[in-house]
C-alpha cells in the first residue's frame, strides 16, 4: 500500500513539473505572434499618430532581427523591436507603428544619405503563407511602404528585388518626438484590383514588418525585419482569458498534487 501511494505521489509530482513547464509555453503559443485588432467607433479618428483614440487600441511588440542580405554590413541593424497597433474602422485598416530611433533621417539628397523607413508586408493569398523574403512569383505579397523623405506607396512583390508600384488608396501620417518615430498607414479593406490583399472580416491575416535606420546606412535589403505575425481579425481567443484558463488548470494541478503528496507522507509516517 505504501509503495502504491509513493508511486502515485511521484507520478503526480512529475505531472506537476510537466505542467509548470508546458503551461507557460501554451500561454505564449497563440498570443506570442498575435496582433490584436481594435474595432474603432463611429466618432473615432485614427488618421493621425497623435490622436487620443489610439490610446484605446492595444499594442503588440514585434521583435526584429537583421534580414538576410548580401549587402555590406547587412547583419548590423539598430532597431530591435517595433510596437504595432491595428484598428479596423470605416471600412479601412489602420496600422500604427512606433519604434525608437535616436536620429531623425529624412534626406536622400546625397549619395551616402539614407532616410528612415518602415514597411508592412501582407500576403495576397492566405491559402499558403508566402516566403518571408518578399513572397514568391507564384505567391506574391503586398507591401505598404513609408519613408521619411515623404515617400509612401503600396507595392507588389513576388520575391526579393521584384517590387512594383500598385497605386491605390494607401494613406500615411507620421511624427518624430523624443527619439521615437510614429507612423500611421491605412488602406481600404477591399482588395479591389488584381493582386491586392483583401482585408478579411472574420479570418486572421499574416503580417510582417521591416524597419530601416538611415543613419546606420540601412537601405534596400539592409534592414531589420520581423518574422510572420498575424492580425487577429477573426475575433478568436484573446490573451488574458486564454491565459487565465490555462493557469487555472495549472493551479488546480498544483493543489491536487500537494494534497496527495501530503496525504501520502502522512500515511507513510503512520504506518512506520
Number of domains: 2
Strand content: 25-35%
CATH A-level architecture of the largest domain: Sandwich
Structural class, by secondary structure, is: alpha+beta
- SSE string: HEEEEEEEEEEEEEH
Mean model confidence by pLDDT:
82
The count of β-strands is 13
Helix content: 10-25%
Which topology of the largest domain does CATH recognise?
Immunoglobulin-like
| Unreliable stretches | 8-12, 14-30, 237-249
The radius of gyration is 24 Å
CATH level 1 name of the largest domain: Mainly Beta
Query: Strand sequence of the main sheet, in spatial order?
Result: 1-3-2-12-11-13
**CA distance, first residue to last residue:** 12 Å
Assembly category: single chain
- What characterizes the major β-sheet? 6 strands, mixed, barrel
Shape: globular
Tell me what the structure shows.
The protein has 272 residues and is α+β, with helices and mostly antiparallel strands. It starts with a helix and ends with a helix. The chain has two helices and 13 strands, in the order H-E-E-E-E-E-E-E-E-E-E-E-E-E-H. The radius of gyration is 24 Å and the shape is globular. The protein has two domains: 54 residues; 204 residues, Immunoglobulin-like.
Summarize the structure.
With 272 residues, the protein is α+β, with helices and mostly antiparallel strands. The chain has two helices and 13 strands; from the N terminus they run H-E-E-E-E-E-E-E-E-E-E-E-E-E-H. The chain starts with a helix and ends with a helix.
Key features?
single chain, 6-stranded mixed β-barrel, alpha+beta, globular, 31% strand, 13 strands, 2 helices, 272 residues, Immunoglobulin-like, 2 domains
Amino acid at each position: 500500500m505504501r509503495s502504491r501511494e509513493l508511486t502515485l505521489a511521484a507520478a503526480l509530482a512529475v505531472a506537476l513539473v510537466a505542467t509548470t513547464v508546458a503551461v507557460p509555453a501554451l500561454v505564449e503559443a497563440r498570443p506570442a505572434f498575435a496582433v490584436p485588432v481594435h474595432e474603432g467607433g463611429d466618432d473615432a479618428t485614427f488618421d493621425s499618430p497623435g490622436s487620443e483614440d489610439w490610446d484605446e487600441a492595444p499594442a503588440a511588440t514585434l521583435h526584429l532581427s537583421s534580414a538576410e542580405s548580401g549587402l555590406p554590413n547587412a547583419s548590423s541593424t539598430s532597431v530591435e523591436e517595433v510596437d504595432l497597433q491595428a484598428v479596423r474602422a470605416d471600412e479601412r485598416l489602420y496600422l500604427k507603428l512606433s519604434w525608437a530611433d535616436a536620429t531623425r533621417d529624412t534626406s536622400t539628397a546625397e549619395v551616402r544619405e539614407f532616410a528612415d523607413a518602415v514597411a508592412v508586408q501582407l500576403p495576397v493569398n492566405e491559402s499558403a503563407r508566402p516566403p518571408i523574403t518578399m513572397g514568391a512569383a507564384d505567391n506574391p505579397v503586398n507591401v505598404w511602404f513609408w519613408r521619411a523623405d515623404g515617400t509612401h506607396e503600396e507595392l507588389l512583390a513576388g520575391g526579393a528585388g521584384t517590387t512594383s508600384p500598385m497605386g491605390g488608396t494607401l494613406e500615411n501620417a507620421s511624427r518624430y518626438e523624443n527619439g521615437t518615430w510614429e507612423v500611421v498607414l491605412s488602406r481600404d479593406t477591399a482588395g479591389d484590383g488584381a493582386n491586392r490583399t483583401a482585408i478579411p472580416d472574420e479570418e486572421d491575416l499574416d503580417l510582417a514588418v521591416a524597419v530601416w535606420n538611415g543613419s546606420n546606412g540601412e537601405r534596400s535589403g539592409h534592414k531589420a525585419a520581423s518574422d510572420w505575425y498575424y492580425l487577429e481579425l477573426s475575433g478568436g481567443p484573446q490573451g488574458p482569458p486564454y491565459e487565465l484558463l490555462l493557469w487555472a488548470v495549472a493551479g488546480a494541478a498544483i493543489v491536487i498534487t500537494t494534497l496527495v503528496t501530503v496525504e501520502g507522507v502522512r500515511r507513510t509516517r503512520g504506518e512506520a
